[in-house]
Write a structure and sequence with these properties.
Layout lengths: L7 H13 L6 H7 L6 H13 L3 E3 L6 E3 L3 H10 L8
Antiparallel strand pairs: 1-2
Length: 88
């Protein structure tokens, strides 16, 4: 799925930048502000990977990139027990 024309260091810098700037920028704005230069095609592959692994979601209304992955919070929720109403 991920095109390895982008090295791991660049991938991690992009991932960290997205985490630090969650909900601040749309996809295109975020791309322009990245701390490393990569092609837009590779950038979209990074986003696809992060979305497929449930690290981010992209708001379809305004195209904002939102970091949602929080393993510590998930551990706390699972410890307490999780109740979900699927009828909503």
């Amino acid at each position: 799925m991920l095109n390895f024309e982008i090295d791991l260091i660049k991938f991690n810098r992009i991932k960290d930048f997205i985490y630090e700037h969650s909900q601040e920028y749309s996809k295109k704005e975020l791309y322009k502000k990245l701390p490393v230069k990569i092609s837009y095609e590779n950038y979209e592959m990074v986003l696809d990977y992060l979305e497929a692994t449930n690290k981010i979601i992209i708001d379809k209304r305004d195209d904002f990139v939102i970091w949602v992955y929080n393993p510590e919070r998930i551990k706390k929720i699972l410890k307490k027990g999780l109740e979900v109403d699927l009828n909503e």
